[in-house]
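Quick start: what a row looks like.
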Amino acid sequence: MCLRMEKQNGFAWIVLDRPAKHNALNAELLRALGEALDDLAADAAIRVVLLRGAGEKSFAAGGDIAEFQGQDAAKALDRARRGQALMDRIEGFSKPVIAVINGWALGGGCELALACHIRIASETARFGLPEATLGLIPGYGGTQRLPRLLGRSLAFDMLLTGEPILARKALQAGLVSRVFPPAELVEAAEQMALTLCSRAPLSLSAILGLVHQGLDLPLPQGLQLEASGFSRVAETRDAREGVSAFLEKRTAQFEGR
């Protein structure tokens, strides 16, 4: 078994479970991750997904290099397209996906983290895209998502040198939103998940979709999308409940309707 899933209190943990291989992303693990997303997408009781690596050393230390031996252009293209499709699915997932980065996030592991909606990290986390040191390039979205997130200068630095950056620099650059001591990371992640579980699920889904669809549009078109989304969400039962709860000074009870 290369992946574990644990459901609790409205959120689910997906644990990449190849610690002896630093949770490297081989074909089996990527397939299992896709199947886990199928399960969670269909489970109305799950509102938030947390993703981490087993052990204390690695979130995911890249692809499984042993699988790259002897690959020709056709196999490499298929590998890249399958990996990109999975990352696109995570980025477009209708429930928040939080990468909980507890160690090395290299190559495909870094690209996996980039596809998640929120990234939080341990103080011991390291981020890098070292493919150029292997005569390769990132193939799961790294050359596209990293510059969009960090800007060209730092992205080129990381991509061309292949050198990793530390958690605090990742925080300053906006690669992660929060950094915690290692012993506090899991508890902090679960607290964030519980906070998101208390929010209106239709609101979260709409926000995720609007950001994903609108980020690369001209602002006027993005604003049109937002207005349309606002009108749809405003007529839901959860919106009525949220407004009523605010006026009545009580905690809202959202149902996802």
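That is the whole record. The two ends are 36 Å apart (CA to CA). The chain has two domains: 3-197, 201-247.
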